[in-house]
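Predict the 3D structure for this chain.
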Amino acid sequence: MKLFVISFCFLFLLFMPIAPQAQDTDCGVEWINNYPTCGHNTCSGRDDTAIGFYNVMTAHGYTGRFNWGEAAAWACDFMDSNVVSCGDDHHWVDTVDICYHADHGNVGIFGFDAQQCVVSANSCRWGDDYDLEWIVLDDCSCLRQGQYGVWWQVFKNLHMIIGFDTNASDDGSRGGFFAEKLAAGWSVKQAWWYACEQTQGSTTYAAIAGACNGDTSIYNEKVWKFGYVASDPVPLAWWWWTNHKC
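Done. Predicted structure below.
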């Protein structure tokens, strides 16, 4: 069970998550470098990239809701309770506007070492509880061309999944680059393309998948606090995918 540090002024404060209001700006990150249970290849920069993102966003006024790493990063934090018995996204990823995950990945899956070794797209439903608009999967090949359709079912008010079409290197600075450009008022798409250009070779392709309710401005939206954000893509009109050579 994760430990909570709770500050309170009143004895009757309820110890339960409170859904963020629309004007809140929140972020959370989870990352894993070492895999004593699952045996994935060891990484060295997954903490740096996720925490770099977290530090820049909180320095620019975002509230940091969680920063879980190694054995404290739990697969069930990303899964939906209506699909998987341990699903707990309504306490974690769905309580923030933008979440950054840094680990291993492949088509339709991303890695962990606690509870289970991977999370698959079919166990996730994002944005249906409270808040989540954008999720970064800084993991290899989660959005591979021709196979990204496995993610469509996760879009429940979610705007975008940000990640990679191809394999990507374990770079510790990408999250910071991304957050700096978001805070400078760049669109989500522009900021991610820039971050990948700074940290990857030309054989790597970044990718973004998104949902749309007919408002095409969602393609170039920014994040809360730093520019225009499109309305939640409900009801869904179509899904879209794009990639970019780094």
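The beta strands are 26-31, 63-69, 98-102, 105-106, 109-111, 118-120, 134-138, 160-164, 205-212, 238-245.
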